[in-house]
Amino acid sequence: EYNITRPKGYTVSYHFNADMEPHHFGLTHPMKPFRLTLTKSLVTAYGMNFAMDNYNTRIATYEELNSFHTSDYLDYLHMAPPEEMPRDIDNPDKEVKFNLGGSDCPLFHGLYDYCSMSAGSSLDAARKICNKQSDIAIAWGGGLHHAKKSEASGFCYINDIVLAILQLLRCYPRVLYIDIDVHHGDGVEEAFYSTDRVLTCSFHKYAPEVFFPGTGGLDDNGPRSEHNPGAHHAINVPLNDGITDEQYAHLFQSIIGKINEKFRPSVIALQCGADSLAGDRLGRFNLQVQGHGACAKFCKTFGIPMIMFGGGGYTPRNVARAWAYETSVAIEIDEKINKIIPEHTPWRKHFVHEELFPSLEQILGDPRVNRNSQKRLQEIIQHVHEQLRFVNA
Ligand code: ZLM
Ligand code: CA
Ligand code: ZN
Predict the structure, then answer these.
(1) Per-residue pLDDT, 340
(2) For labelling alongside 286, which of 34, 70, 74, 204 has CA 20 to 30 A away?
(3) Is 103 in the pocket of ligand 1 (CB under 6 A)?
(4) How does pLDDT run across 278-312, given as a tens digit for each residue?
């Protein structure tokens, strides 16, 4: 009775590479590549694969990575010995220069392959959007928004989002980049600082000195010089701990709604970092799966093509719930998703008769104290709307 069929009139594609999972940042490192497999299992358990085109994605080539990253960085990333190997005495300061090998960005076995797989998924997604074979393309293995052209940062080595947007710019005049990861999307913002063809908008916890990466204040709108067309095309929404679904939806809709009116994007690149969910190991917000998914749902109402990337997310079972739910939003079955009992899951027989069934409706984590006043949120909206007076399609 709950047969899952393809959405009418448009195509959704799901881009996945199973070889990302076996890579490990280290036993206790918060980034867990197996969350991608967990997500895929949940998506398949609900039968959502029948409503999409499914692709096993390829590895990005050196030349593709080189369209944003410098050769000296890529060469070192390619040859850097894993942490447990003896260090290369000929390159004593390369690892410092490229920020490789610390606890955030360790040099683990197979690192270069892992990065090429993540980038390959996002590039495949962008190509499907470019050649109009997909209307929504999903690449949960991407979304690594901190990587710079010659530097790793915050668990990110290759900026697959920048690579995908560069691809989109070949076929579309204007790209709107939206980032709902709890961290500031600094790498993507910086890469497109000097163009008015990409508008970036990041929502994040902002507390310089104490919360990574410390950039993305309300007044950071791109370098304001007379000759910079990219001025005013970086929008930042700095938030405090504990923001709720209702507050976030109001902010998101009034800001993104206005951006859509003024900037008239031809395509949306949405980074769906799941560390903005309640109960995240690194995050600080109170978002539920529905509140997080409401962002994708709102973007979809514009009726323009969209790529959905992954990103952060450090409580794997909640990451899988959120991204499975957002997949259901893409294929428009979200309204009935909690009535569908997933088939073929190892836990089905244990939970099917119990309230314990791990539904996508479950309340996540212990709530955090909400430190966002209505007054402050109104001020933020006001400021962003004023900023957008300088933006015209
Ligand atoms: N220390 N292990 C988000 C990227 C956030 C920089 C403070 C490292 C951690 C964190 C690593 C096992 C995205 C910082 C933190 C401790 C300098 C960050 C290894 C725990 C561990 O247990 C850990 C030994 C590690 C790293 C916590 N790092 C928490 N927060 C941030 C980077 C990436 O979600 O936005 C997109 C994927 N780094 O705060 C320090 C300043 C390193
Ligand atoms: Ca963000
Ligand atoms: Zn994050």
Answers:
(1) 74
(2) 34
(3) yes
(4) 999 999 999 999 999 999 999 999 999 999 999 99
169 touches 198 (CB < 8 A): yes
Ligand 1 pocket test: which of 28, 83, 103 has the largest number of ligand atoms within 8 Å of its C-beta?
103
CA distance 201 to 234: 6
- Judge whether 99 lies within some domain: yes
Total residue length of the chain: 393
Q: What is the DSSP letter of 68?
A: T
CATH of the domain at 316: 3.40.800.20
pLDDT, tens digit, 9 for 90 and up, residues 15-33: 999 999 999 999 999 999 9
Please tell me the least confidently modeled range out of 117-121, 224-228, 251-255: 224-228
Q: By residue range, what is the domain housing residue 46?
A: 12-390
Cα–Cα distance measured from residue 330 to residue 7, given in angstroms and rounded to the nearest whole number:
9
Q: Is 184 a catalytic residue?
A: yes
For residue 216 and ligand 1, the question of a CB distance below 6 A is answered with no
Q: Are 218 and 238 in contact (CB under 8 A)?
A: yes
Please work out whether the CB of residue 140 comes within 6 Å of at least one atom of ligand 1.
no
Query: What's the CA gap between 18 and 16, in Å, rounded?
Result: 6
Categorize the per-residue pLDDT at 158 as very low, low, confident or very high, splitting at 50, 70 and 90: very high
Backbone φ and ψ for 126, nearest 5 degrees, come out as -65, -40
| Burial tier of 357 (Cβ tally within 10 Å: 0-12, 13-18, 19+) | middle
